[in-house]
Amino acid sequence: MSRFEEAKRAAAFSAVGEVGNNFIIGLGSGSTVALAAEALAQRIRFEGLLVQVVPASTQTELLCVEYGIPLTTLTVTPMLSLTIDGADQVDPRTLNVIKGGGAAHMREKVLASASQRVVLVVDESKLSEGPLNKPVPVEVVPFAYKPVETRLKDLGGNPILRYAIHKNGPVITDNGNYVIDVDFGEIEDPVGLERRVKAIPGVVEVGLFIELVDRVYVGLKEGGVKILE
Fold first, then answer.
1. Domain count, the chain
2. Do 49 and 97 sit in the same domain of this protein?
3. Quick one: 15 and 42 in the same domain?
4. Please, which pLDDT band fits residue 154 given cuts at 50, 70 and 90?
5. Catalytic center residues
6. What range defines the domain where residue 173 resides?
7. pLDDT tens for each residue of 173-207
8. Mean pLDDT across 156-179
């Protein structure tokens, strides 16, 4: 394992260190969240930690089942102690982030909004050097995707419908929707952009997470972990 991979692993294990006994936590999706699930399983096994997880995706749910991590739902426990997640890009100045590379950002945002605290685990490459500038995933109802695409162009974006890799046709989210990745260039006003995109009929959720994150654990290329808050 490279020093970089070791640092990502250390960042994930550090984030899981925030989990207390009897916590109900949200768990997002992605490679760093998989490391967090591994760390959580170890704490359950070796420390007798009592915890329940609300997973953000089917992939995370299956991973928790594999590790023997107890599951619950927002119907049973609508308020969460903590959510642990990853990100596609983080603005280190504001902790605003872009998420949705795994097409789970709608559920991830619900978990974040229902949590007392939100911590992210990323590697150093996910930090922006200025304003957020990666394409923003937009989950959209299939019936409306063409009109939504037109409206996104009117907002100055370059929308591209996300296609699946191991099947024909577009990516389908766990909610049965499409994902449009929209390049807006440098996002100087993420608050306003999120508001304008969400106002488009047919848009389910936007992969901009604004003022939701409390702390970010960053795995550094040269090894070690940096904390942003």
1. 2
2. yes
3. yes
4. very high
5. 108
6. 136-205
7. 999 999 999 999 999 999 999 999 999 999 999 99
8. 95
